[in-house]
Amino acid sequence: MGKAATEAKLAEERALVLSRHAVSRETGERLDAYVALLRTWQKSINLVSPATIPEIWTRHVEDGLVLGERARGILRWADLGSGAGLPGLILAILMAEREGGEVHLVESNAKKAAFLRTVARELALPATVHAERIEDCGSVLAGVEAISARALASLDDLFALVAPHTRPDTVYWFLKGRAHESEIAQAAAHWRFDMVKHASPVEDGSVLLEICSLERLAAR
């Protein structure tokens, strides 16, 4: 896709997403600034699939907006394997207008962590970047209300990473693709949990899983 076509597609997708989600002028400006920074950094490090750049708004940004709307009552977040800040930086952009809002972005890749810090600083977001492995961020996970992750690991593996550190009332919001049913079945063999499955607007078959009351099953 040529430059002019890319810009036209981005403008079309932006208008579509903002028509579906009521955000303030300030939030809209921060989203625009985030997209601009992502496109700039994408030239030197691979933050998202290059083929999805013209569809940043519908393929990437909208997931975070949907999550923020579903979990409107939550203020303190940890986003795991944040990468390009999806959905963590989108949540932080939404939290910027909410008193007490804070997002912890856990990303062990130094270059991606540098990108996250740059966006958080330039957009004045209530976000803290932890350039560490998830298992080394126990105190962070223990201090938040909710944990999010997108395309990071299987449910079974995610549960194993976070369960030793989180509280009984922690809520987990995991964005999953079409293979989510097999992941749920695999996790259910080792864990007990309550789950609500929300359809994702981003891709047919994708879901936003809302999980709580996580507990490891006793070994048989």
Automatic annotation (TrEMBL):
InterPro entries: rRNA_ssu_MeTfrase_G, SAM-dependent_MTases_sf. It is an enzyme of class 2 (transferase). GO terms for cellular component: cytosol. Coiled coil: none annotated. One of its GO terms (molecular function) is rRNA (guanine-N7-)-methyltransferase activity. It is found in: Cytoplasm. Its main location: cytoplasm. S-adenosyl-L-methionine binds at G81, L86, I134, E135, R150. It catalyses: guanosine(527) in 16S rRNA + S-adenosyl-L-methionine = N(7)-methylguanosine(527) in 16S rRNA + S-adenosyl-L-homocysteine. Its EC number is 2.1.1.170. Keywords: Cytoplasm, Methyltransferase, rRNA processing, S-adenosyl-L-methionine, Transferase. Pfam families: GidB (PF02527). Specifically methylates the N7 position of guanine in position 527 of 16S rRNA. Belongs to the methyltransferase superfamily. RNA methyltransferase RsmG family. HAMAP family: 16SrRNA_methyltr_G (MF_00074). This is Ribosomal RNA small subunit methyltransferase G. It comes from Aureimonas phyllosphaerae.
